[in-house]
Structures are given as structure tokens and as C-alpha cells.
Design brief:
Strand content: 5-15%
Number of strands: 5
Mean pLDDT: 81
Shape: flat
Largest sheet: 3 strands, antiparallel
Number of helices: 10
Oligomer: single chain
Radius of gyration: 24 Å
Helix content: 55-70%
Strand order of the largest sheet: 1-4-5
Structural class: mainly alpha
């Protein structure tokens, strides 16, 4: 267990990534104080992005994505859990494939703008896939599995893999209103899987958090959703990656490279310097901690050997 933790920690410290983003407007909103709310907000942001990009690219009257808005299509899940991110991942993947099949003349945007939209869809797909990995891990935790099986009321128990597949494939209900018109109703907030999942509405999230029931994430997962929250669906203008071996890679958005802004470049460089200094201190601290931990383990082993 300790070996695995130190291995992951060392891997995470092998490189430093600094991104500079230009936003059209800022609210100064901080990341929510819980992982459940953060994932709920990320899913909502991705959903809006699929709608907005799709409305600009999909011709009016084209229902290749169903009766829903833009690339979002028909909504089955609208929360921040496994079902929701599975749906967002699949919608983004389908949208990317659809764009690739269209001639450039099919869009009323210049090709570079379409490429940027496609990059954003790839981010939604990739991040949704990574977030799904969190729920897969949580679902297979032995204590969660035991709790899930104990809470099932049917004689025929469903294992976690079957449950995951059932959530992925669960469709919204279709009901008729008083006028006889058919309405789609998204899947209900699912409290039965809330010990490891987050396909629940804002009210249920508040109730769970009031009882101290946030999702139990590890450090790498926390860092991953924090990055997803920080970057959102904004366009990265400058990105610099520094490897612990001294290798440095800087990526610059093409249109920014053609007309660079000195203020933005200076801000990126200052941020890079600050991050590198902090990174060095972090590496030194972790090296000291790991060294102490190994020393303690070896010392304990020596005492055990003497006793035997």
C-alpha cells in the first residue's frame, strides 16, 4: 500500500504543467467545497458546451443528434455521476466523428474555428473518460460492494459490473401529459448508488454532505478534477511542461503566436518561475519524507530480525 502511494506520488512529481488561459469574462468563483458539487458543476459546464458548439455547427432541422439541443442530444442523465459522464463522453465522441465526416463547406465557420471546437469536444470526451475511472474505482471498493449487495431487496443479487452497465444503458422515461403530448423525463436522482456514485440532484447532494458523505477520492483524483474545474472549457493560449530531467516543452496557440501579447507572455513566464520554485521545494520535501519512511521501515525490519 505504502509502496503504491509513493510510486504514484513520484510519478506525479516527474513533470510540471503551467497553462495560461484568456477568458472573455471572469466571476472569480472558487472550486466548490466538496467533490460531489465540483463534479456536478463540471458535468453542467460540459453539457452547456456540447449544446453551444452543436448549435453553431449542426444545420437547423438536422436531428442526427435527436431532438435535444446541439450536440447534447436527448438527455437521460443530468447530474454529476457515472451515468452523466458516460453520456457526455459518448455525445462528445459522436460529435467528433460527425464533424470528421462533414466537408469543410458544411460549416458557416472558418476551418480553424471548427478545429478549436473539435479540440474542446476532445477535452470533454477525455476528461469525462478520466472521471468515469473514479466511479469505477469507488464502485469496486470491497466495503462499497458489500453495502450495495446488502441493500438490494431482490433475491437475485446484481454485481457491480452489471450495475455499472445498467446505469450506462438506463434511458429517460417517456410519459404523456394531460394534453396527450409525450414528454421525456430524465432518470431520477439515484440515491441507491450514492455511496460511490454521484448521479443525484443538487438537493440530495446537500443532504448527503450535511451528513458528511462526500466522495472519498485519492490525491491524484482530486488533482485531476481540480484541473478539469480550473480549465473548464476555456481555450489554452500557452502551455509549458517541464520534466524533472530538464526537458521543456512549450505549446502556443497558432493564432496567438502570429500576434503575441507581451503582457500575456510576461504573466505566463512569471507563473512558470513561481511554479518551478514551488515544485523544487515540493520535490525536496517529498524526498525527505520518503527517505524518512524508508528509514523507519528498515529500522523496523532490523528490530524484527533481531527479535527473531
Amino acid at each position: 500500500m505504502a509502496d503504491s502511494f509513493f510510486k504514484r506520488l513520484a510519478e506525479d512529481l516527474l513533470h510540471l504543467e503551467v497553462n495560461t488561459i484568456i477568458k472573455s469574462q471572469m466571476t472569480g468563483q472558487k472550486m466548490p467545497d466538496s467533490y460531489r458539487r465540483t463534479l456536478y458543476e463540471i458535468a453542467h459546464t460540459y453539457s452547456i458546451s456540447l449544446i453551444d458548439i452543436g448549435k453553431e455547427l449542426v444545420p437547423s432541422g438536422n436531428e442526427v443528434f435527436g431532438s435535444g439541443d446541439g450536440f447534447r442530444g436527448e438527455v437521460n442523465w443530468e447530474y454529476g455521476g457515472l451515468g452523466s459522464f458516460e453520456e457526455l463522453k459518448n455525445r462528445a465522441k459522436f460529435a467528433i466523428e460527425w464533424i470528421d465526416q462533414q466537408p469543410n463547406t458544411a460549416f458557416q465557420k472558418d476551418p480553424d474555428a471548427v478545429k478549436r471546437d473539435k479540440k474542446m469536444l476532445e477535452r470533454v470526451q477525455d476528461n469525462s473518460h478520466r472521471i468515469l475511472g473514479i466511479f469505477f474505482r469507488l464502485a469496486k471498493n470491497p466495503s462499497v460492494l458489500q453495502e450495495h449487495l446488502a441493500n438490494q431487496k431482490t433475491d437475485q443479487k446484481t454485481n457491480v459490473n452489471e450495475l455499472i452497465e445498467s446505469i450506462k444503458n438506463r434511458k429517460a422515461k417517456s410519459i404523456k401529459d394531460d394534453s396527450g403530448k409525450t414528454q421525456r423525463v430524465i432518470n431520477d436522482s439515484d440515491l441507491s448508488t450514492a455511496s460511490w456514485n454521484n448521479d443525484i440532484d443538487a438537493g440530495d447532494i446537500n443532504d448527503l454532505l450535511n451528513d458528511g458523505n462526500d466522495l472519498k477520492l485519492d490525491l491524484r483524483e482530486i488533482m485531476m478534477i481540480k484541473k478539469a474545474w480550473d480549465i473548464g472549457v476555456e481555450e489554452i493560449m500557452l502551455q509549458t511542461i517541464v520534466g524533472i530531467d530538464g526537458d521543456v516543452t512549450t505549446r502556443i496557440l497558432e493564432r496567438f503566436a502570429k500576434d503575441p501579447d507581451k503582457t500575456v507572455l510576461d504573466l505566463h513566464n512569471e507563473g512558470l518561475k513561481t511554479s518551478i520554485n514551488f515544485w523544487y521545494r515540493m520535490v525536496d520535501t517529498v524526498t525527505t519524507i520518503v527517505g524518512s519512511a524508508i528509514g523507519t521501515l528498515l529500522s523496523g525490519k532490523d528490530e524484527k530480525d533481531k527479535a527473531e
